[in-house]
Amino acid sequence: MSNIDLKPKAKIKIKVERPKLHKVILVNDDYTPREFVVSVLKAEFRMTEDQATKVMLTAHQRGVCVVGVFTKDVAETKATRATDAGRAKGYPLLFTTEPEE
Ligand code: TYC
């Protein structure tokens, strides 16, 4: 009765990995008005006026600034929407993405 071997013969190991996160990077340019950059950061990245101003100034002074870190899809969608917001006004404002190390 109880002598049937029900033990699994092979171990199945399921490996779950964290999705890689991607940075959204704000790139400086000479034409987009500072206030417009701040308004895009507030609208697309849910930043306060203070946070957005700091990020804008960092990009202005250093050339680039990391805006935030998201899953790949979210990073790409936000970067595209934010870049398009500038393009709609004729500004060369650019947001790029890159995978985190
Ligand atoms: N450099 C722009 C100016 O002086 C402002 C600016 C800041 C533009 C950051 C883009 O990512 C940027 N009007």
TrEMBL record:
Protein's UniProt keywords contain Hydrolase: yes
Entry GO MF terms: peptidase activity
Keyword Ribonucleoprotein: no
Organism domain of life: Bacteria
Boundaries of every Adaptor protein ClpS core domain copy: 18-96
One protein family per Pfam: ClpS
UniProt GO BP: protein catabolic process; proteolysis
Keywords: Hydrolase, Protease
HAMAP family membership: ClpS (MF_00302)
Membership in a protein family: Belongs to the ClpS family.
Role of this protein: Involved in the modulation of the specificity of the ClpAP-mediated ATP-dependent protein degradation.
Complex formation: Binds to the N-terminal domain of the chaperone ClpA.
Name this polypeptide is given: ATP-dependent Clp protease adapter protein ClpS
Native source species: Rhodopseudomonas pentothenatexigens
